[in-house]
Amino acid sequence: MKLSTRSRYGTRMVLDMAKHYNEGPIQIGDIAQRVDVSVKYLEQLIIPLKKADYVKSVRGPKGGHMLKKAPNEITIGEIVKVLEGGINLSDCVEHPDICDKFRDCLARSIWEEATKAMYDKLNSITLSEMIESNKRATSDPVPNALKQKVMIV
């Protein structure tokens, strides 16, 4: 499975918001510049994150966007799920009735297991943990290949 740019760029945006969590609302232009993604695209990604109650917007000259929850309360899996509309490797995992072979399909169980493993991994990593892991990785002389944590984004 390949994650879409929605998930990859949206995760970058949310991680940037998490880094600046205690600074109040952040203007989308500032985020766009730091994460190297267009303002227009980030504006599209903010919409589902607001609807899902992960981001709130503040109007006015000192307005912008900010996380509604603390970074240690939001997982990467939650963000990916919102931006991808779910994280199933195959449509038949969530909707078995779309395939007339779902009862006899030999492959379906592996798609279910792989989806669960991916979902479990992404849900085990909070935004705070990603930020801390990145700080350690950039200041640690140990090569990244030796690290145990999975780095996303």
3D structure, described in words:
This protein is mainly α. The protein has a single domain, classed as Winged helix-like DNA-binding domain superfamily/Winged helix DNA-binding domain (Arc Repressor Mutant, subunit A, Orthogonal Bundle), CATH 1.10.10.10. Helix content is 51%, strand content 5%. It contains seven helices and two strands, in the order αααββαααα. It has a two-stranded antiparallel ribbon. α1 crosses α4, α1 crosses α7 and α4 crosses α6.
Shape: globular
| Overall SS class | mainly alpha
Q: Spatial order of the strands in the main sheet?
A: 1-2
- Share of residues in helices: 40-55%
Topology order in helix (H) and strand (E) letters: HHHEEHHHH
Largest sheet: 2 strands, antiparallel
Features:
153 residues, mainly alpha, Arc Repressor Mutant, subunit A, globular
Architecture blueprint of SSEs:
Blueprint: H1 5-19, H2 28-35, H3 39-51, E1 55-58, E2 64-67, H4 76-84, H5 91-94, H6 108-123, H7 127-139
Antiparallel strand pairs: 1-2
